[in-house]
């Protein structure tokens, strides 16, 4: 009888383990939601010539029409609580020579409500496009940040008085970003902070941000400074900087999002898929305010280099995720594929003092990573491997080539499909 009971327990554990192993991880969807609105080869895409110029300040409610193609000449500020509405299918080009940028100032709104078959596109005005051709899209709100004084100003080469962000309203709205692409932005200007493709500063939780793609940024794809917001279906393609950077006490939920890196496109400085911090400088942080808390679910973080071993040997492959001190971070039901290592935790975090309680890494699929979780500046991670390898976290470990793991990432005729082939999620360590 005892032997039979043991067999039953073994069978039950096997069924449970198999079910867990087959659980969907990474980006999900009954169909490939990257279809139609994304563009993975934007340098080859041609748009109409510009026939309308935007410059200076937009102070009244304004609509940009699909029939026109617009040029951002220098920084363009939407001010005076105005609403800028952009029709689906509209193309806006950033002028390279004048550092074209669109700044939605505090109190103003952008309604960029594209559709799956008619997305809104921000791109370069150069005939041969490259990363950093123009500045980027900047949205400033009045939700809380944790810098002393409760407000700050963007440190780009912009008018400081027009780039103030931060306040006390977490439910504020800065508008809608839906089915929108930002291509070849992130300009670097000597003496100033580099632009991001998309900067969200103190944005409130009534703002809608979904189905947004940032491609070939010379700096970060998306930087979130404080605020309280939720995002889903966000795509970052071959950013030179971080794909998703969070700081200044941001309270953010990110769902079903994708970061596609390549060793040869990363910048000279360290760049990650996710970079989570509570402050830029500790001495500027007001610890009476909320520290950063980021929850990311069903995300796929993938390095698509074709020769991972050689790139690792050459030092071109870095970590996928960095978690700073004094932050709360959860990454769940996600895939990290092709990094060295998968996650690095700030060396100010002390595991022996309970420092890992705020860092939840669970139901993850660590694939083809040279090392999984490390404390910064250490080489021995046995304790962390044991901790996050505990069955309670339900993490899986494997070494499956990307072109086998994902449904179709090398399609020559259609958009790639970065959903995991369920049958490839195995239980080997």
Automatic annotation (TrEMBL):
Protein name listed in UniProt: T9SS C-terminal target domain-containing protein
Organism annotation: Flavobacterium amnicola
PANTHER family hit by this protein: LIPL48, SECRETED PROTEIN
Native organism taxonomy: Bacteria, Pseudomonadati, Bacteroidota, Flavobacteriia, Flavobacteriales
Keywords noted in UniProt: Signal
The keyword rRNA processing appears for this protein: no
Keyword Signal: yes
Signal peptide segment: 1-21
Coiled-coil intervals, chain numbering: none
């Amino acid at each position: 009888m005892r032997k039979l009971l043991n067999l039953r327990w073994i069978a039950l554990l096997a069924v449970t383990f198999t079910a867990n192993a087959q659980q969907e991880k990474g980006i999900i969807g009954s169909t490939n939601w990257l279809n139609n609105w994304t563009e993975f080869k934007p340098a080859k895409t041609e748009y109409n010539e510009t026939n309308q110029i935007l410059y200076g300040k937009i102070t009244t409610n304004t609509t940009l029409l699909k029939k026109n193609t617009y040029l951002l000449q220098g920084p363009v500020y939407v001010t005076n609580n105005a609403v800028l509405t952009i029709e689906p299918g509209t193309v806006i080009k950033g002028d390279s020579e004048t550092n074209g940028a669109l700044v939605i100032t505090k109190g103003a709104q952008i309604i960029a409500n594209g559709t799956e078959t008619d997305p809104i596109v921000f791109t370069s005005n150069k005939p041969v496009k490259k990363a950093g051709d123009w500045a980027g899209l900047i949205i400033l709100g009045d939700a809380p940040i944790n810098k002393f004084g409760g407000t700050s100003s963007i440190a780009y080469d912009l008018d400081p008085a027009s780039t103030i962000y931060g306040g006390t309203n977490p439910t504020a709205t800065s508008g809608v970003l839906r089915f929108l692409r930002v291509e070849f932005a992130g300009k670097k200007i000597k003496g100033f902070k580099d632009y991001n493709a998309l900067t969200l500063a103190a944005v409130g939780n009534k703002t809608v941000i979904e189905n947004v793609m940032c491609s070939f940024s010379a700096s970060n794809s998306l930087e979130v400074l404080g605020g309280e917001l939720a995002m889903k279906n966000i795509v970052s393609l071959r950013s030179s900087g971080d794909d998703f950077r969070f700081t200044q006490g941001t309270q953010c939920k990110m769902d079903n999002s994708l970061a596609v890196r390549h060793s040869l496109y990363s910048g000279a400085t360290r760049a990650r898929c996710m970079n989570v911090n509570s402050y830029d400088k500790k001495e500027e942080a007001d610890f009476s305010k909320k520290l950063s808390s980021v929850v990311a679910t069903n995300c796929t973080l993938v390095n698509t280099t074709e020769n991972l071993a050689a790139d690792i040997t050459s030092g071109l492959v870095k970590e996928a995720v960095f978690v700073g001190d004094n932050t709360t971070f959860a990454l769940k039901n996600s895939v990290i594929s092709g990094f060295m290592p998968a996650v690095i935790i700030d060396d100010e975090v002390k595991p022996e003092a309970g420092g890992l309680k705020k860092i939840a890494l669970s139901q993850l699929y660590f694939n083809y990573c040279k090392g999984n979780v490390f404390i910064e500046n250490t080489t021995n991670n046995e304790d962390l491997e044991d901790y996050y390898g505990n069955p309670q976290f339900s993490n899986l470990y494997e070494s499956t080539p990307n072109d086998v793991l994902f449904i179709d990432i090398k399609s020559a005729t259609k958009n790639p499909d970065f959903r995991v082939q369920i049958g490839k999620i195995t239980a080997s360590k």
